[in-house]
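Lecture notes, unit on protein representations.

Consider one protein chain, 207 amino acids long.
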Amino acid sequence: MVAKTAAAGQVFTAFPEKVKPGEKYVFYSHGFIVEGTNPRPENKRWGIYEFPAVKRALSDPGYNLIAYHRPAKTHPVKFAEKMAGDIRTLIRHGVNARDIYLVGFSRGGAISILTSNLLKLEQINLVILAGCSKYMKNNPQYRMYGKVYSIYETSDGVGSCDFVIERSPQVLGFEEIAISTGKEHGAFYRPIPQWLVPVKRWLNGDA
């Protein structure tokens, strides 16, 4: 199902019916609060999670964006298995692993890491937004693979991904930046330029 057509890229809310070899595919995985049926849920501390606006802002002519709305009570490992299957399908249809990017915030970041751990592909790319949480600390068996770009907010309780990188020898490249908006975890609830601009620059190879 196609949600939007860009100049050369598309935004999908389900796995695309037709895979285009030679094109770039970016998966965006939202945070836990969006799981369910409401695309704009509200947290009393951090405000509304603007999932539709984030998708619009992340869309780009340079790649196809796949952004699933996960159902309530999604099991992270089970959803990572689905994501890994989707990525294997892309590769089977001629998409190069180096042209596949997993972008995830919070629970979505953990799911992206779990997907990477299942695939064990050194050519894949990860963008982790405040996703190296206590869950990752409590599950040291999960590792990252490929090239990793991490962004965290200094006022947030979820910080650097260094500890996951240290146990992930198959990471071929790691870059991390910190932003300081004072918005805590809510910094990633909306497509603000502090994180959106560097993420899109990295996705387009301009970093």
